[in-house]
Amino acid sequence: MTALLWALVVLPAVVGALLCGAGRRADRVAPAVAVGTAGLVLAAAIAVAVSRPAVSVPFLPGADLGLAVDALTAVVLPAVAAVTLLVLVFSAGEITGARGRFFGLMLLFEAAVALTTVATTLPALLFAWEVMGATSYALIAFSWRDPDRVGAGTTAFLTTRAADLGLYVAAGAALAGGAGLGLDRLADAGGPWLDVVAAGVLVAALGKAAQLPFSFWLSRAMEGPSPVSALLHSAAMVAMGGYLLLRTAPLLAASGWADDAAAWVGALTAVALGAVAVAQRDLKQLLAASTAAQLGYVVLAAGVAAVSGGAAHLVAHASTKALLFLAAGAWLSALGTKQLPALRGAARRWPVVGVPAAVGALSLAGVVPLSLWASKDEVLAVAREHSLPLYVVGLAGAALSAAYAGKVLWILWRRPPAAAESGYDTERPGTRQVGGLQQAPLGVLAAGAAVLGLLVWPPVGTAIRTALGETGLPRPSVLEMVLSAVLAVGVVLAVGRLPLPEPRWAAGWLGLGTATQVVAVRPVLRLAEALARFDDRVLDRSVTAAAVAVRGAAGGFARFDDRVLDRAVEATGTGGVRAARGAAVADTTGFDGAAEGVAAALRRLGDLLRRTQTGQLHQYYVQAAVVLAAALALLLLTR
Amino acid sequence: MLSLIVFLPLAAAVVLGAARALPDAVSRWTWLGVTVAELALVAVLVAGYDTPPDGGLAWEERLRWIPSVGSSYHVGVDGLSLPLVALTAVVFCACAVHALKDARRPRAQAALFLFLQSTCLGLFVAQDLILFFVFFDLSIVGMYFVIAGWGHGGAARSALKFFLYTFLGSLALLVGFIGLYLAADPHTFDIPELVAAAPLADDAVAGAWVLGAILLGLAVKTPTVPFHTWLPPAHTDAPAIGSAVLAGILLKMGTYGFVRIAMPALPDAWQAWAWVVLTVGVVSVLYGALVALAQTDVKRMIAYTSVNHMGYVLVAVGAAGVVADGAQEARELAVTGAVTQMVSHGLITSALFLLAGVLHDRVGSYAMADFGGLAAPAPRYAGLFAVGAFASLGLPAFSGFVAEFQIFAGSIGATWFAVLAVPGILLTAALFLRAYQRLFTGPTAGRAEGFPDLRTHELLPVGGLLLLSLLIGVVPWPLLDLIAPAAETVVGLVSR
């Protein structure tokens, strides 16, 4: 059975990667291969939901890659696999170009979402979580020649990744708090680390689930193909944000504040994005806002630890919303528009799309006895037990969902105007055809949207609650159920008579996108540019300046060398030569002269002495007498 | 065995350099042949590697070299160096394939790259500071000639800047090494002996100075803010394979120095100054990513992402020095992540630089403004670039995620301060997606029109590098089993 668990992830990943890698060569076979693979994955998902295998393989030191199927997974995984299969069938009829890439990416996404649902450790979860984000980017930007769509993909990826940072921080905090990286042990983190872990997980989940304040990315994500919106931006990826909170509900509760925070963010999103949905005139935008609002109930459920109700709502919403997105996509390709005014009466002209869409819209409105009515009440009953204000806000969100679903319902089923054709083909040339591959999934999803309320009723509901250990949870009273049913039907009927307000703040998604641009994106870009200038003009130049200074100093030394040292040496040389010359002059005129003078004087003395040699005796006597007299005088004087 | 691996490319380089009349094709294929042989030898090395007990070395060789100063020819590998030796063999092999169609003086290029490969391998197996330093400096010389000889634009100036800056850094390193030598009793340059002795353990002032000199030298090479300004011009003007080696291998010499020398040999100083390393790491992460975000030149942008990615390594090794109770496991995870990041960055950034080089080879420009909608004329190029970009921004299933997850989880587990580096991965995502959007999507415009798609000799090396990154990303434990015991040893040593 562990092999099946692996196959669930590895099979779509490998096939998807191969399809992507093969590119255009795989275009012809891609739809069949992808649908076949998704079918096998669904079979595997059902099998593991029954057998509940668990497996763990080494991944990082002290952090294994853990996969397991528990009761929560067993509810969510087959539903996601089924929706994937149906969306891929629809895509086979809808997507005409670059099918290898499209179906490859969808399968990669399915692998990631399957791993998300079965992950039991943070590394496994984060692994899948980020791959979901990346495939979402690539699928939103599927028509890459359009810069707007690529920009929308970038916005989606960056916004969700900004929230994902929470999981990285949570992993560090879990290690620091001594809890390890198992998802079920996160609540054991000690001290302030527990708060960090809870906050990190909460932020990451809110970002993925397009809850406040991250909701705006979902609006731009609608620029992607309709099957992508149906699978990623309603049934699977966005829903995984809610799923993570359901899985970590004990952690939220253990922190003492994150559970209330989640509950209130969920409830407020249900109301605020419900209002946004009411104000939309573009069908896909309305559905996107509604997705965020509906997932608000799942997040609320996680906050009040109503896991069974939250899971039921997640699954029922997946079926309902995938249906509505696919219907919107079918009309978009047939009629070339998704603008609600232009779609007036479309359901009457295409009842094969219109009837399933009507079931979906009624379920979305919370009309009794369809699925979302049942699952929402299940969540609200636990919320009321927690706090009455929370319940009231949740109920207001329910009224709003009835309003926007009613809006869609009435427009689609009114009589088409005579000049209906003039509203068509505004966004792309319509084919005026809805093929069999597109119709078939709608029926199945409509059936799901109708009956998945069974997930909260006995016997299935009881079994799930028992498996999740939630038998003690409060159930909705008859009064509550009647109240919400009357509310839904009443609002839907009222919407048919009264025009709905479309305030600008709501039509513009509360200005969240603009606010993000102003508060985060532009300052960061400006900072980046300023730092780049600093890097070029200050850091780099200071290094260059240092080098120039060194060169300048070297030049200075060279000049010193030339002008001072060298000249001093030269001057010494010249001086030496001069001194030598002087010495030479002195030598010739001084020493040599003196010597010659002495010699001349001696010669003259010699001449004088020679003259004394006269040869006459009397002159010798005189000389002897003089000498004797002189000697006598010397003697007498010196005594 | 290690000596054979280190000196085989050098011998081939000498032969190629001497054989003046060799035909170009023979030079190219000889080069490729030698790199493939190296790859095979390293594969044997990895296959036969068993983590030695007590943090010792495998395939150790020690010969007398300069006994008068206590320096010997001492080589050996452990879990820190073996992954980098393997990375070196892989990246140089990829470069040899990429250069198969390069017409510019192939014989000299082959000889030079083989020489460079020897210096890189030598550095990673060196267990002696003098040996380490010699290879460190020779690699700078080799890379200087690569940039100056085969670069473009202001190659001569950039090469000179690279040379002077990193050479100056190496001098600081040498001063630090001499400080270690003098502090050790008996005087020695042998790394395991120095690590065992941990000289300067009881002299905080001298320890700080020696560590400062070593850190400065390594920080220039890594490079970290503010010593990184030689990197962008060097990359912009270097040939594609030069950039791949520079970013893939040469930068690792800096970060490898931290875990091989600075941390284990100066544990007390490292603990005392870990916060400086951590801060420089955080600043490098954020600053590198932000400056990269503002770039309009693809190659400069990738160069700045290297500053960011190497910043993560600094964060991890800095956090590993923050010795607190009970965080042993987290600090080991951080160091394992740091070494993984070295390997991962080597694979991914080399691939990205080889891809960026294609732009210049085709149309002589790296400016993003010159391109648009490249995905239409060059779908394979667009696909591989997308894979490379997502791998570099740390997408799971690629090695970058394995590295960065460990770094963040481990570093935050050791000290909350590391949280400040986390926004780095968001900024990296933003900059890669913006660049990808400008280059590859939208209507085909500018020089993108008629852009020829990747050819086989360009496709294979990039594909191979990214495939390895994918393999590590999906099945990381064979690599981590190699690194983790060594990381444990380093953390144990630095905690003394």
Give the oligomeric state of the chains in this entry, treating copies of one chain as homo and distinct chains as hetero: heterodimer
Q: For the CA atoms, what is the radius of gyration of chain B? A: 21 Å
- The best one-word shape of chain B is globular
**Helical/strand content category of chain B:** mainly alpha
User: In percent, how helical is the residue content of chain B?
Assistant: over 70%
Total beta strands of chain A: 2
Question: How many helix segments of chain A?
Answer: 24
Q: Spell the H/E element sequence of chain A.
A: HHEEHHHHHHHHHHHHHHHHHHHHHH
Helix/strand structural class of chain A:
mainly alpha
Write the layout of secondary structure elements.
The complex is a heterodimer of chains A (639) and B (496).
Chain A: H1 2-22, H2 30-51, E1 54-60, E2 63-68, H3 71-94, H4 99-118, H5 122-140, H6 147-176, H7 192-208, H8 216-221, H9 226-235, H10 237-247, H11 249-255, H12 258-278, H13 283-303, H14 307-335, H15 346-349, H16 351-365, H17 371-386, H18 388-413, H19 436-451, H20 460-468, H21 478-497, H22 504-507, H23 512-612, H24 617-638
Antiparallel strand pairs in A: 1-2
Chain B: H1 2-18, H2 24-47, E1 58-66, E2 71-77, H3 82-98, H4 106-125, H5 129-150, H6 155-183, H7 191-197, H8 204-221, H9 231-237, H10 240-265, H11 267-293, H12 298-320, H13 328-363, H14 379-392, H15 399-414, H16 423-440, H17 456-474, H18 477-494
Antiparallel strand pairs in B: 1-2
Helix pairs in contact in B: 1-2, 1-4, 2-3, 2-4, 3-4, 3-10, 3-13, 3-17, 4-5, 5-6, 5-10, 6-8, 6-9, 7-10, 8-10, 8-11, 9-12, 10-12, 10-13, 10-18, 11-12, 11-16, 12-13, 12-15, 12-16, 13-14, 13-15, 13-17, 13-18, 14-16, 14-17, 15-17
